[in-house]
Amino acid sequence: MDSAVVSVIGEDFPQEYLDLLTDRNINIEGVEIVEGGKTFFWSGKYHNDMNSRDTLETQLNVLADFNPIVPENYKDAEIVMLGNLHPLVQLSVLEQMSVKPKLAVLDTMNFWMDCALDDLLKVIAKVDVITINDEEARQLSGEYSLVRAAKKIAKMGPKFVVIKKGEHGALLFNDDHVFFAPALPLEEVFDPTGAGDTFAGGFTGYIASTNDISFENMKRAIVHGSNLASFAVEKFGVERMIGLTKDKVNSRLKRFQELTQFDIDLH
Amino acid sequence: MDSAVVSVIGEDFPQEYLDLLTDRNINIEGVEIVEGGKTFFWSGKYHNDMNSRDTLETQLNVLADFNPIVPENYKDAEIVMLGNLHPLVQLSVLEQMSVKPKLAVLDTMNFWMDCALDDLLKVIAKVDVITINDEEARQLSGEYSLVRAAKKIAKMGPKFVVIKKGEHGALLFNDDHVFFAPALPLEEVFDPTGAGDTFAGGFTGYIASTNDISFENMKRAIVHGSNLASFAVEKFGVERMIGLTKDKVNSRLKRFQELTQFDIDLH
Predict the structure, then answer these.
(1) CB–CB contacts below 8 A, A to B
(2) Which of A95, A220, B37, B242 has the most CB atoms at less than 10 Å from its CB?
């Protein structure tokens, strides 16, 4: 699978983290390094339930003026994942594509609903899948019921609506179909930062690697995303992800199967 | 399946509700009607999320002096479900059994942890299954993680620990095995009162009707309990349950399958 990252970092960004990408054959031509710049920085404090948090500090730094440039060789990418940034940045990436992607996935958050709703609605109208958390789905739709919220959001554009509920799992809506995957119950959640990103990456990565955008395959992608997120929260930052092997991933997928699969004969 | 209810009501209890039981061949010999007494009464107000509520009024009435008498013919019942009442009332039922039941299921709540913990621990030590909600599991165990909470509670006696998470589903723990069933995502939750009781009844009723206490069958029982609870919340009181048919129940079970079942090849 040929994939690339488009992003921006400062000179302070550790080379070893870039190596994590190139070691895995991920193209980083599209990662701009701003001379003398500082990388985006966030710190926060999680509440006891690990599902809510307070931001202590956000420094946009080089992200403030990010102008994403999609590398020439990736302008015909079939699968595009738009990470959680200003909707105009997300739109700019879509506009640079020479061919309409087979699947465009959008991640966003309440911050953009508060300060850039019109732009956000424009990009939402152009994507196939949106991933969003439960509170944000409620805010965006004005509906408390997640079933109704998903229906309203689907009317804004995306055929597939993924609602992330943190430790309570994730829902995938498509027309009248619903699929649900729980989060793996863990003894300890060490650091939930990035769990949603890991989920979105695992979800989209699985679809890209299988090149199948059917609902059945998206169900598998939801399970793969949840599975990877269950690792991400066990250590700080990307620490847990670095040592992952296919065996470890598969053996935890088996736990997902045991957790959710049952056999009821309805005849 | 031969089953009976042991309970207490006042003279104000509507005959038509008793008929609902006898019409379904449920023995009500053990339902004591206190002359001149008033039935237990509760009213409350649900918050917007329908997962939390404030009690407006609780009148224990005839429940205050309830002395349960298990009918002679049911003292050898194989499956016993102890509803959420004072642990001494629950213990008294167990002590009246002439044969140790194949499976005893206990439902309880935080109220008894606050005011009758010692008695509660005694009855917990004697049962095979406990059903309890997430906050109560945390209170009883002193552990935030539900995985750890379930392990601690299992050490108190019950081989099977069921943790109910309301709209976020239910977990079944048994040794190192975990199973999870989500609540069916609904457009509208009308009245969640009794959802937990419906779940416990559906869970235990399924085990009784199949006479199989294996973990595999308990998974099915969890799904059946969740399925029935999803009906219960759609109307006020038992209204939605009264009109239920096997077809309606089965067609919703199919929705549970679609909601949760996936197919990942790990080889």
Answers:
(1) 99
(2) A220
- This prediction's pTM: 0.93
- Local structure of residue A235 (DSSP, 8 states): S
| Strands A170-174, A160-164: pairing kind | antiparallel
Taking the CA of residue A121 and the nearest CA in chain B, the distance in Å comes to 24
pLDDT in tens, chain A (267 residues): 899 999 999 999 999 999 999 999 999 999 999 999 999 999 999 887 766 788 899 899 999 999 999 999 999 999 999 999 999 999 999 999 999 999 999 999 999 999 999 999 999 999 999 999 999 999 999 999 999 999 999 999 999 999 999 999 999 999 999 999 999 999 988 899 999 999 999 999 999 999 999 999 999 999 999 999 999 999 998 999 998 999 999 999 999 999 999 998 876
Beta-strand pair B177-181/B170-174: antiparallel
Which domains are delineated in chain A? 1-72 (3.40.1190.30), 75-260 (3.40.1190.20)
